[in-house]
């Protein structure tokens, strides 16, 4: 298949980043969300990212405009009829995904691949909401999407080999490094990352060290670019909790039990950078 047109569903941090890298790679992109103002916010984020590239002399103003020529605003899922690949990056909630994939199954052309950027929900279950589970696949980008090289590509139980190969080739065209993963809770990235973050929250909860000390140990001692508590704030504490709950439920093992302090912060609305407060306070 010659992939030319893509729809990205969800114009939040991840969706906007995915739309940006797709447009920069030359794909025509519909950025879709429920309301026009959400799509506009996504466009603003892309504009800020590209302006940073212009300021650094890596891109001209004209090249920035060319990227925007590839981008189209969408609030109507019926426009999936014009695309070859859909990448869903909506809220991490199975009911929301179910409704989106049922709609996409109605509107997307027969040849279209339906990918999801879910960070931990089972691809096989999402695929079962459609009559084309062989065309459904996980395409898990990392935040911030324009910077991070990894794309985890997750095969559902029914995903066709050809679909895997198309998405692998697309990830390479996006200048990313694809890694093949099977469909188990948390895939590889979050199965390894989230228990580390959860353990960092436990060390804070048990008074082993201050938040700054915990972050410094991992930054200076293990060369991580961000300490685990800073990273948790950056990802969103609600997302971290949701993924830990998915691991806990999926494996049934107590080692994945979310730290009570993480639950408490989420209940308080301290969700990290996006809410202005998490383990740290943001302006
Ligand atoms: N969007 C776009 N570009 C960004 C950005 C953003 N939000 N934040 C930083 N950048 C760019 C900067 O412009 C800069 O670009 P150049 O090198 O081209 O100049 C580059 O990233 C480095 O930025 P800074 O110098 O400002 O800061 P830094 O060196 O601390 O890097 C970082 C910032 C790349 C975010 C780095 O701290 C990092 O790698 N952190 C860890 C990120 C991580 O682990 N992500 C995965 C999270 S897990 C996930 O996403 C999956 C999930 O399912 C939860």
Structural class of the helix and strand makeup? alpha/beta
Radius of gyration: 19 Å
Separate helix tally: 11
How many extended strands? Answer: 8
Percent of residues in helical segments? 40-55%
Approximate shape: globular
Mind summarizing the main beta sheet? 8 strands, mixed
The run of helices and strands is EHEHHEEHEHEEHEHHHHH
Low-confidence stretches: none
Q: Whole-Å distance between the termini? A: 47 Å
Mean of pLDDT: 97
Question: What hetero molecules are in the model?
Answer: acetoacetyl-coenzyme A
Question: Biggest sheet, strands in spatial order?
Answer: 3-2-1-4-5-6-7-8
Binned strand content? 5-15%
GO molecular function: 3-hydroxybutyryl-CoA dehydrogenase activity; NAD+ binding
Keywords: NAD, Oxidoreductase
Family: Belongs to the 3-hydroxyacyl-CoA dehydrogenase family.
Organism: Lederbergia citrea
């Amino acid at each position: 298949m010659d992939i030319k047109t893509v729809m990205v569903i969800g114009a939040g941090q991840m969706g906007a980043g995915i739309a940006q890298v797709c447009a920069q790679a030359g794909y025509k992109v519909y950025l879709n969300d429920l309301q026009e103002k959400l799509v506009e916010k996504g466009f603003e984020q892309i504009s800020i990212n590209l302006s940073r590239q212009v300021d650094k002399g890596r891109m001209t103003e004209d090249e920035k405009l060319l990227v925007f020529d590839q981008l189209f605003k969408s609030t109507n899922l019926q426009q999936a009829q014009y695309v070859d690949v859909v990448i869903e990056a909506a809220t991490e909630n199975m009911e929301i995904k179910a409704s989106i994939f049922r709609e996409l199954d109605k509107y997307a052309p027969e040849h279209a691949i339906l990918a999801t950027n879910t960070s931990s929900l089972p691809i096989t279950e999402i695929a079962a909401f459609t009559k084309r589970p062989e065309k459904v696949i996980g395409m898990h980008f990392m935040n911030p999407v324009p910077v991070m090289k990894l794309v985890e590509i997750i095969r559902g139980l029914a995903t066709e080999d050809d679909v895997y190969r198309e998405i692998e080739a697309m990830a390479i065209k996006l200048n990313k490094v694809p890694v093949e993963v099977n469909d188990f809770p948390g895939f590889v990235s979050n199965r390894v990352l989230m228990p580390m973050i959860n353990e960092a929250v436990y060390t804070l909860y048990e008074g082993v060290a201050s938040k700054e000390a915990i972050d410094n140990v991992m930054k200076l001692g293990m060369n991580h670019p961000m300490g685990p508590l800073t990273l948790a704030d950056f990802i969103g504490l609600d997302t971290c909790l949701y993924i830990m709950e998915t691991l806990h439920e999926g494996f049934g093992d107590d080692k994945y039990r979310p730290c009570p302090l993480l639950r408490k912060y989420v209940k308080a609305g301290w969700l990290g950078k996006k809410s202005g407060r998490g383990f740290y306070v943001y302006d």
